[in-house]
## 1
Amino acid sequence: MKKILTTLLFSVICIASFAQIPGNDFGYDEYNSRRRDLFKKLPPITRQDIVFLGNSITDGCEWNELFGNSHIKNRGISGDHAEWMIDRLEGICKGQPKKLFLMIGINDLGAHVSADSTAMFVIRVLDSLQSGTPRTKIYLQSILPNNDSIRRKSAFLMPEIIEVNKQIKKAAEERGITYIDLYSVMVIPGTMELNPLYTYDGLHMNGTGYDVWRDAMMKYVK
């Protein structure tokens, strides 16, 4: 009986966290909607699972194969925004996963959302997760650098990425959340540009980039 009451309490907290932002007010594209619907049909997340949550950079990897761990579940959606993500967390919270790795925010900046507002939305995601699934060990990954020599749209994002990372790192530390600085792993030293060895378009990872990412994350996943 105590276990049932505890589960119900977590569900109430989780649902309350998402009531702050209405569900379909952001004009999700077809892919976003399809992924959201798919996640509802897949086997539910459990307390043995490790969730990777994010946008296309997360969506684009077979994390369970990369780490050799069948309990890893990919909940990335290409094009997703931190502002949009809050209202799709309920299914994750219900499962109370063992660990969760979050990376989000670059698409907010790409849509000309300010660094302060982007950081605020990322922090709201963190707070919703902490309240909705308190047993989960949460890891916040920094936003990755872009490379303007490959992706011409990225120059205006570079200072904003650094500022968002600064703010969300501080928020993570204040909340007892582990912050993983992947920006420093992926950047060309002395610049603000993503190492071209790790990308094919200046934004998304290639196979080598995901290998480097895995190596930086291994101790946290294991």
Note: The mean pLDDT is 89.
## 2
Amino acid sequence: MDRVAVVGAGLTRFGRRVDVGMNHMAWEAIKAALEDAGIEQKDVDFFAVGNTGVWSEEPLPAITVGEYAGLTPKGTMRVEAACATGSAAIRVAYQAIASGSARVALAVGVEKMYNSPTGAVVELIGRAGNYFWEFENFGLTFPGYYALYASAYMAKYEVKEEDLALVSVKNHYYGSFNPYAQFQKPVKLEDVMSSKYVAYPLKLLDSSPITDGAAAVVLADEESARKLTDTPVWIKSQGVASGSANLSKRQDFLGLPASVEAAAQAYRGAGITDPLKQIDVATVHDCFTIAEILAYEDLGFAKRGEGVQLIRDQQTYKDGIIPVNLDGGLKAKGHPIGATGAGMAVEAVKQLRGEAPPQRQATIRNGVALTHNVGGTGHYAYVTVYSL
């Protein structure tokens, strides 16, 4: 299989983007990625468009985005994997190159959530697990799903709500240094603790927001990559796994088995045996604050029950043992569902190139970054290792 590198990365501002339509917003990210790679639309052999919403303003987003961006008649497809959709689009583009069917491919993730009918996004996301069981019978929505995890973790390991809030404080702090982030102001612990409950013990400031945004990366085979840039960022490996949509079939609520499996695959492919020593910076799926703490453990940064200590000791800050979510994460940067995974890839590339603002630029010793993108409550999991 051909080696595959990221040679261009582009991002829009995340937040409430009622100023543009979905196609134009996608074009903002695509244009930035193409310019970063130093190529034009004609140089792209294939493009994958990640878009989740059944609420989307376009039922055929790959077609409309491609035409608007001047990519027609290149081959394309729409990709969906819930909140991991952006990573799934990258995987499709990666496989097109690795298989030899394309030399240059584009992966774009885009989501417009604010222009949907009132309440439609929240309702549809809320019942997107196992609709006929959890939602229809018990009214269980995604905040409720993650509240189960938070409650179980707190009870098992004597963790307090304040510990969860520390994740929000960290991620909003780094979001304040990210001009693309939805929220660019720090929050204090007392701000998080005084915010309203969404699903006990999770509060509003424990939760990621509704977001509009787009992100794109240009991928290339080794020969093309070395012609296009002196700083290719290689996709070293990617692990992919899935989990049951029925929570009654899960053994416990102390971790996401799909994340554990995806991480194991990615680590084998990248030759990682000690994540804390070999990974310089990570971007993980913090749709709720408990999700980031679970990710610490699912990814092997800490043993079961000890992930909370990493945030207590600020070991996931920029100068800690494993910097995590230095872009603000989903919590502060925002969570445009179809674009989130692609946005993580952009952050990994910028970090490895040393292009992040100094306040949130990690020290790159090994030249390795990791992204962890979850769909649903572990229904999908994508873990990708990037390297210089």
Note: The domain at 236-387 is CATH 3.40.47.10 (Peroxisomal Thiolase; Chain A, domain 1).
## 3
Amino acid sequence: MPQTGVLAPQGMLVHQFGAFAAALQYDQLPSEAVHRAKQIVLDTLGTTLGGYRAGFGRQVVDFTARTAPGAEATMIADGRRVSVEGAAFANATMAKMLGMDDSHRAYGHVAAEVVPAALATVEATRGDGRDLIVAMAAAYEVFGRVGRQVRRTQLERGYDIKGMVGALACAVAAGRGLGLGAEEIAHALALSTALAGGLETYVHDPANSHTKDLISGFAARNGVFAALLARAGFRGPRGALEGEGGFGRAFGEGIDPGEALADLGRAFEIAVAGFKPHAGCRHVHQGVDAAREVRRQIEVDPARVTQIEVATYRHAIDAPFRTTLTPESPSAAGYSLPTAVAVGLVFGSFYPEDIARFTDPRVQALLPRMHLSIDPAIQAAYPERNGCVVRVTLDDGRTVEGRVEYAKGEPENMLTDEEFEAKFRRTVADLLPASQTDDLIARVWNLDRIGEVESLVRLTATPT
């Protein structure tokens, strides 16, 4: 992969990331990174459109129209223009609502924050598709290289990484989208460390809390705000990431600059992003996939099932909300591995409408027969692999096994472009006319050849 050749060996991390982001050019991105960026944009536009029609999507766009007036950038689906911060906030919040945004097994969810921040700023500056791709690629570098070093500690402490590291990545996306120079992007990144925030308390109260989705909006808005501050001349501390009292020590066990910069400009984080073909928590998807493998072998009749063994990695079953047999709502059901396996066995998919049927008698009949355990081999390979084994024992003594080494959507088990399109059409459903949906998909696949991204955003507006 080509190198950027812009980094000096000295200097603090914010300045090195700033120099990299400012100097990165489209032609320096390998083809796999460019194609993955297109997949990310298509996937995120689909989840955002789906979020608009679900949950509190319309509520958030109405709120944003009132509180963030302006004409700089567009709210997806709604079509109204608001301030650049407002568009980033509304679109990022909607992008998270279905729980089907992208994922990375090493450092969490990225696209729901980064794409809206990049899209709003590139639209505001009348940038083109290549500008959008480069802004996203630069942001993914920061998310991945910082996120890998703090994620474990942040999980243990109850922080939400998409609000914490996501704000940092969005500052870089917005800085590049606004066309800032190296020093300005460095200061945007430094300022964003004071704006990062988010707690995972919502996992214990998913039915009554909006914060799971709002945190993505906060990250996108705060990252854009940091970039606007930097453009206006405001400055952040040089050691904001790895320094004494910096982000790494405050919210992790520290950041190793050498590790953060290793292969920067040669190995691109965006190229190894993963995706969620199912709704709900990513840590139940391997169970859904293994259940689908069972369904490919037999037609599952709950009346004939005597036992279901589910073996996976520790983190998938390390909390009560992940193992409950009695979730109180569809939101809670989306975090429950046994519920996900049962729904997968009965319906063969785990979209929001499937999760909503978790009270179906066939699903409920399977849950008491569920036994969860840690598979030593799967645990040893985690997080590089996120596998699962589902063994269904029938009343005639037969056992049918479904096994996956990687959940569907991981780089080693990636969706095809046709599967991305199918997911997009299903999440958008009849929100847009069929011809508009076709045109939107075609433009995303040609993102590197379109002029102003505003032309792409306009295609997301629902008919009036």
Note: DSSP finds 21 helices and six strands in the chain.
## 4
Amino acid sequence: MNFQMKKTFFSVGAFIFVFFACASLYDYAHAARVDEIKSNIEARNKELSKIEEEISGYKKEIQKAGTEINTLSGAIKTIDSSRKKIEGDIRVTENKIGTTNLNVERLSLEIGRKEEGITFNLSATGNILRQMYEIESQSLAEIVLSYDNIADFWDSIENLGRLQTSMSASLAELRSLKDGLVENKGDMEQELGSLVTLKGSLSDKKQIAEINKKEKEKLLKQTKNKEAEYKEQLADRLKKKEALEAELREFEAELKTVLDPSLVPGAQEGMLRWPLRDVTITQYFGNTPFATQNPQVYNGKGHNGIDLSAPPGTEAFAAASGMIVDTGDTDVACWGVSYGKWVLIEHPNGLSTLYAHLSLIKASKGQTVSAGETIGYTGNTGYSTGPHLHFTVFASDAVGVAGLSAPAYKSRVCGTELKLPVLTKQNGYLNPLSYLQIVE
């Protein structure tokens, strides 16, 4: 074989050797850091399981304390257990943020590795192409005559074959690296999106914790930490609630016209999703035994929605896509006697949904939301005998907001103007269970 041919095959071989040697060293360093990250994630997951177990215990404490909500000690227990649960939520969220950051670092390493690999392979491919061009630019006669004997010629043919094989392998590796790079970058975008969501959730949880703290301070200040004062306060709230509901019925009666039955969506399971991740119904729709036996609570007129058990700070989701008609807080104008913080959504399927007794609202008037999107966090605002979510379903044509899509409502009981959803047409309250997914 002539000197030029030997030089060509030697340089290609040397390049391939150096390429794979560098790649191996890079892979070793990368693998060591990835293993370290995985170990850290595993440790965080174990810690997360412990925190979630603690939160489960706090939920039980809240549920137990809720049965004693008519006592000051029970109310304080509920608030204290809620505080512990929210603090646990904060720790969970911080843990998830840490884990997500580790996943972002892992993906950054993967992306860096693949970009380095692509650079190496492009160089290798270019070098192989150049060497093959130098060989193939010679005529067959020139190649044959350049050898001392026929055996050397066949050796060069075999070397050329190996060069072509290396070329194919390099191209295949490039395709694989490119596909992996696209996948890793997609995963990275998803992780970064999760990170933004988690940081938002952490901010919300800290805000709810502050609300919880103020709620306890307000309760102790109003009752002077005396059971008798608390019972008197409860009695006063109940009296005002009864009077407000009677007054509101009169107001609605003046507004009501007959609802066109054709505008009421037929009962169909699955038109709405559950507004909570974990579903426990504590009060059903209509003239339920509780509503009948407790006319002082529902005035014998039935329950206009369903109540779902939920510790304060639980995410409440939009039951379907739609537009936020409005949001409000009845406690601002008349504390402790109505819906508290509420959100009303109109859906394109002819239904509207109300979410009440929220601790924090995360939606705004006119906003478009998707099914399952967080619109707030559950709480104990308004007139509530324990933390829960009140969920009402209306025929969209039969509901308005006082002062917005219905006449303004000036309450004699509260001495203030209230903004809240009101029924504008008869038979506009619908049974949520006729439209929600069946819980297995």
Note: Helices lie at 3-66, 72-136, 140-145, 150-223, 227-255, 289-293, 295-298, 330-333.
